[in-house]
Amino acid sequence: MQQEALGMVETKGLTAAIEAADAMVKSANVMLVGYEKIGSGLVTVIV
């Protein structure tokens, strides 16, 4: 049985968000759901 979970990483800047998303997708069996710009340079990546 496959279990599902939601993971979020908040970074300061788009470059750091892209690097975090890239590392998560390459190292685990996860799917990138999306991202959201919060403000003040904060970006949340959702997997």
From TrEMBL:
SMART domains: BMC. GO terms for cellular component: bacterial microcompartment. Belongs to the bacterial microcompartments protein family. CsoS1 subfamily. Residues 5-47 form the BMC domain. Gene3D superfamilies: 3.30.70.1710. Keywords: Bacterial microcompartment. Its main location: other. This is Bacterial microcompartment protein homohexamer. It is found in: Bacterial microcompartment. It holds the Pfam family BMC. Pathway: Polyol metabolism; 1,2-propanediol degradation.
